[in-house]
Hints:
CATH architecture of the largest domain in chain A: Clam
Order of helices and strands of chain B: HHHHHHHHH
CATH topology of the largest domain in chain A: outer membrane lipoprotein receptor (LolB), chain A
Number of domains of chain A: 3
Number of strands of chain A: 17
Number of domains of chain B: 2
Number of strands of chain B: 0
Helix content of chain B: over 70%
CATH superfamily of the largest domain in chain B: RNA polymerase sigma factor, region 2, helix turn helix motif
Order of helices and strands of chain A: HHHHHHHEEEEEEHEEEEEEEHHHHEEEE
CATH architecture of the largest domain in chain B: Orthogonal Bundle
Distance between the termini of chain B: 39 Å
CATH class of the largest domain in chain B: Mainly Alpha
CATH topology of the largest domain in chain B: Rna Polymerase Sigma Factor, Chain: A
Structural class of chain A: alpha+beta
Low-confidence stretches of chain B: 99-106
Distance between the termini of chain A: 66 Å
Radius of gyration of chain B: 18 Å
Oligomer: heterodimer
Largest sheet of chain B: none
Strand content of chain B: under 5%
Largest interface: A-B, 50 and 57 residues
Helix content of chain A: 25-40%
Low-confidence stretches of chain A: 79-99, 112-131
Amino acid sequence: MNCQQCRDLLVEYSEELLEAPNKKKVDDHLDACPDCRTELQQLVDMQNSLRENGRVVGRIDLQDRVFNQILREQQNRINSAHMAGPISIIRSLFMKNPLLKIAAVAATVVIVVLGLTFIPGNITFAQVVEPLLNARTVVFDLIVGDEVEGFAARDFVIGSKLRRDVPSLNNILIMDLDASRMLVLDTSGKGALYIKIEGFLAEGQRDVINLVRNAVSFAMNDPDAVIEEFGRKTVDGREAVGFHISDPTSETTIWADPDTALPVRIELALGDTPYILKNIQFDVPLDESLVSMEVPPGYTLVEQQGDWSEFSEDDFIVVLRIFAEYLLSGSYPETLGLEDVMGIQPQLARIPQPADMSDEEAMDIIMSYGKGILFFAQLAGSGADWRYTGRGVQFGEADKVVFWYHVPGSSSYRAIYGDLHVEDVSSPDLLP
Amino acid sequence: MTENDKYYVTRCLDGHPDDFRYLVERYQSILLANLSGQLGDRDRAEEAAQETLVRAYFRMNRLKKPNSFFSWLLGIANRVAKEQRRKERAWLRRESPSSLSEEAPAAKESPHAELQKAVSALPERYRQVILLRYYGERSCRQIAEQLEMPLGTVTKSLSRAYAMLRQSLQQE
């Protein structure tokens, strides 16, 4: 037995999991090898520290506290369900026409993935990724958040067209990035809608496609990165070689095909949000009809065309209004971020449209919602100073700021108050 | 308490919410260890562990694979910790805007706190085995069964995790 073979077995040895013959081999080697004895001692020390730490953290009994809180929350939910009745009648909004909800869904799907463009730092391409850059088709599953519970989509990239299937939301997006146009399909209600996506949104989607490629070159180029090899393993049903890359801002694990060196699975933790790209395939033959911009047979096209090329603060105010006035019974949300926007999706699609609101008006509001999210995504991604301060503020409170941001390229700040009026503020010291 | 997570999750969803107690009992210490490392403070970690379990209770119907309860629970805990840190930063900024720009001299942490921090910074797959082994007092075989992986993968993960912990403690 050599040192490496011995060290590979030390955990099993210390856990008394080795069969007698192997145990004897390790014993014999340890008798003869002071280095491996030191290695074993370090291992045992670490195990003892962890065991001791387990005792310090100690036993805790949260059962009563947890169940008391559950009871309180159940009571609150019952109370707010009672309140929601009259409120939903008085303030009901959108969805008389089920076709319209597809725009709201599209807004969510788009923003979820724009999260990926918030990645800090500049990632440059390297020659290593040349084959990826030239791949004509890429297919992958994209998961944001928890692998079991998070947002999951399947992406098909064919040239400059991207198709994103989101079965959990009954939604398919097809984007033609050269034509700056997106077709949204609602597979449950059989509705179809075109949205113009010039500028920020189209660029954001390109970044997503490039992410697969970037993850590789990033690892190769980052001088601070620590790259470790994991060896071979079966990943998502195929054999792959793993690399783990740590750097100060992210943890990346790349599983690559051992023959082609192309990535098959990428796990990224950026800040606190995990992204998983899995079942990645390059240059698979794909039918062009997958990314056809024609409305499929059996679908009804919404007459108005949406336009998400331009968006403004006014659109963002619509988002705040929808959160506070319509979804949270008069309170602003605790936090405002990607997860919150994703979380309200199911409720958004259920808000009924009032009888006196025309489809055009409802459509405008829904479109503004999507654009408002884009405004927020761009602001957050631009590195501008902004803060959401709406926690505990009630809808209508004119003296409390719920959101403020620095206007890029100017010295002034914009502050949005609880009643949704907006003021210019000269200094951040005047803001919460 | 020998049933697996799937059994209790199914029981809860089948109209026996009291059985959630067994899951609380099984994971409270593990959550506390994980969150202490992330939040650096026992009281806040207890609060966050409580909040994590309450959220899990109300969202259990959204758990697609009952076998993955533990990893799902850790995901919720991560979000709770993140929200708590975000709120604290906002609070700090309001109370003393200057404190964020001036780096406060870091107090020397106790070895226990350092170790917890290092554990909570491990990549998830390694963190899971360490948490289960030392804070959940599972044997390697039990971990293999729970995470549905070969015993050899558990011991390799532990080995890798020890190396990462050692490295991160040396850097402190």
